[in-house]
Amino acid sequence: MLSRSAAATLSFLRTLPTSVACETCIGAYLRAERLDVLKIIRELIEAGRILCQYAECPVCRERGIVAEVRRERAA
Ligand SMILES: [Zn+2]
Fold first, then answer.
1. Is residue 74 part of a domain?
2. Distance 45 CA to ligand 1 centre (A)
3. Phi then psi for 59, rounded to 5 degrees?
4. 21-45: pLDDT as tens digits
5. What is the whole-number distance in angstroms between the Cα of residue 70 and the centre of ligand 1?
6. Distance, CA 32 to ligand 1 centroid (Å)?
7. pTM for the complete prediction?
8. Å from CA of 73 to ligand 1 middle
9. Assigned domain for 54 exists
10. Maximum distance among all alpha carbons in the chain?
11. Where in the sequence is the domain holding 46, given as residue range(s)?
12. Residue 22 in contact with residue 68, Cβ under 8 Å?
């Protein structure tokens, strides 16, 4: 089971066209501290729900660590 914050992060990412956002944008959405965002990101990575990479955030256009929802197997 995911924590509430992790589930909220996942649904936030899924509302985005590319399902990608950086830790800053996730933090702004959750109104969470950076440290808490990093814990949530780690939880989602360990649960196999997201991938992280260094890229430009499609939301704020800053380059940094972005989280991307892992694609489900093609339906
Ligand atoms: Zn961003």
1. no
2. 18
3. -85, -55
4. 999 999 999 999 999 999 999 999 9
5. 18
6. 14
7. 0.90
8. 26
9. yes
10. 36
11. 4-69
12. no
